[in-house]
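SAMPLE LOG
Freezer: B-3
Tube label: C17
Construct: single chain, 333 aa
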Amino acid sequence: MSTTQVAFRYAGRSGLRVERGEVWLGLATTERRTFVDGRAERADVLGTGLLVVARVAASRYDTSDGVSPELADPFVTTGEGVVRFESLSGCCAVGARLDLLPSGLDLTDHAPGTTNVELGQRVRELLGGPLPRDPMRLVVHAAGLGTPTPESRVHERRVVLPARWVRSLAELPSIASVMTVRAELSARQARSFVRSLPQGPAAPVWVRPARDGLRVVPSAGPGAVPLGVPGALRELEPLLRHAHGLRLWAHDATGVSWWELELPHARLGLALGMDVASRQGHDVARDLRVGRAADAAAGLLGYDLSAARWFDRRLPVGRDLLDLPEPDRAAHA
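STRUCTURE (predicted):
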């Protein structure tokens, strides 16, 4: 299996502090420039959503302990007033993305682009603590919570990325662009459904729309959506108290689904079944590489299902592992 070694180098550390009654979150990046400097409307929603993205990056959903040697750090994409944090699990089965929307952002310095962010154990513990409903100061730049200087000490983490991991992340937008809506749940229905699912590894099941939301069924059938890792949806549980509703999209040919919570000034989505798509549905995903979907497969675009639109999102690592046809490889170099 093809792999590539990646070094994540940070000149600062991510952190969270309360200063003069204001919550500050500083996220260190691998690039020495500022991506975000502003305020987010809801500290509690941002902190909890970011923790879900970090937990997915640090998890496997095919083992009993769920622990994964971390692969790539989560990454942030900024542009057109939206700030998006994204990750993929070590088993390649589950992706996560937190979209912070313009209605809840007041940005004073916003440089478009994509870069990795440090979300290690220390900052996860801080995000897991109680956070107020008040605004949070959000800074995403090289020094994290500190002040960037030319003498800032660099710390490094090396990982080996498999091609399947990179391919799953690159192909998700192409698949998402042809998904269809399968169910829309109220906040109450979303809480009831997610909390009914088993924790940890479990046998694959299917879900089907029902009068009171979604119903788990033991086998495939008309209108059913596969749920290969039911326990992964429990990652949504900390955000359910903030949710206005839950929407489900799916793509039949690959079995990939997208579960998105609508939150105050934000959305949190989980992609399930990406490991199946990268192994068994690879030919199907290849067939989708037409037009902008081809740019997405090259690691250059993401797709926003709620807005039904593409956005610039250049994968910061591993693009050399994407098995593009030679003409496409030259065009997207």
